[in-house]
Write a structure and sequence with these properties.
mainly alpha, 5 helices
Length: about 130
């Protein structure tokens, strides 16, 4: 049985939005998330690097697949950084005291960022080597 609309309204009125209104509000929340991400130094550095790397991907890539891999890995780093920041923010909201589970969650988020950066660097190095190898 579907939940009662009055319960949804009390808990989260956003769930009742439909159509273009829902899309417009979702886009607004996404932009707020990007603005919040900009306040994080790591995300800001990656965003600034992407201003150079994304256009360079179109120059460096020899096919649409290469361009997609180059741009995709850059965007993946930014996505993972935003998710890591979300995890850290949620953990910090719980409380400032040290907890091994909180540390574990933050460490795993950091590891995810490291892996995405490693993947990005590997794809870019392979593309550069392919392009400039003699």
């Amino acid at each position: 049985m579907p939940p009662d609309d009055t319960v949804l309204t009390a808990v989260n009125p956003q769930k009742l939005r439909t159509g273009l209104d829902r899309i417009r509000h979702a886009a607004g929340y996404s932009l707020q998330g990007l603005r919040a991400g900009w306040d994080e130094p790591a995300f800001r550095q990656e965003a600034i690097a992407s201003v150079v790397l994304l256009p360079a991907a179109f120059w460096l890539g020899r096919s649409w697949v290469e361009v997609a891999l180059l741009t995709g890995t850059v965007l993946l780093v930014m996505i993972v950084e935003l998710l890591n920041t979300g995890i850290e923010t949620a953990i910090d909201r719980i409380g400032p005291e040290w907890n091994h589970l909180s540390k574990r969650a933050k460490d795993m988020g950091s590891a995810a960022v490291l892996l995405s950066l490693t993947l990005c660097a590997g794809v870019w190095c392979a593309a550069l080597a392919s392009r400039f190898a003699i």
